[in-house]
Write a structure and sequence with these properties.
Number of helices: 2
Radius of gyration: 18 Å
Low-confidence stretches: 1-14, 138-155
Distance between the termini: 14 Å
Largest sheet: 6 strands, antiparallel, barrel
Mean pLDDT: 75
């Protein structure tokens, strides 16, 4: 694959089909890293802490973020701080504004404006078409399309 390859197999049907490099650029500005710090008592009875990290994506330009519940579960149940980091390194404190544990979904809110929200699709427009899923893991942007087979690409 090269940066000029069309993202969709049936791209000729779409006037606005994006190249893979354009999808990557969008993902950079829409995928966020999420961190919370968990404090616990270790085996030796000493207080210790560790970071819990995950990813999410911007769903509104005014700072609503969608993530998985398991990413913020400890923060939610133990009232811990959550931080959201954008690709440019800007970090924001986040508020957990909604959870759906049974479906592993959570919504966070950061105080920011003018963010690049993901354009969510659904229904008949996605059936049979290729798609790309992106996430952030330890400062790498990972494309789920690249997880197929035996290779993993970290961008």
């Amino acid at each position: 694959e090269n940066g000029n390859a069309m993202l969709f197999d049936s791209a000729t049907r779409y006037d606005n089909a994006l190249h893979a490099s354009e999808v990557y650029e969008l993902a950079l500005s829409q995928v966020v890293g999420i961190t919370t710090e968990v404090t616990y008592t270790n085996f030796f009875g000493m207080t210790s802490s560790s970071a819990v990290t995950g990813s999410g994506f911007i769903v509104t330009s005014d700072g609503y973020i969608l993530t998985n519940y398991h990413v913020i579960e400890d923060a939610y149940t133990k009232n811990l701080d959550v931080s959201v980091m954008l690709y440019d390194g800007t970090a924001y404190p986040a508020t957990i504004v909604g959870t759906e544990p049974d479906n592993d979904i959570a919504v966070l809110k950061i105080e920011a404006e003018g963010l690049n929200a993901a354009d969510l699709g659904g229904g008949k427009y996605l059936r049979g078409d290729s798609s790309a899923a992106w996430g952030s893991d330890h400062n790498y942007l990972i494309n789920a399309r690249d997880l197929c087979g035996d290779r993993v690409h970290q961008h």
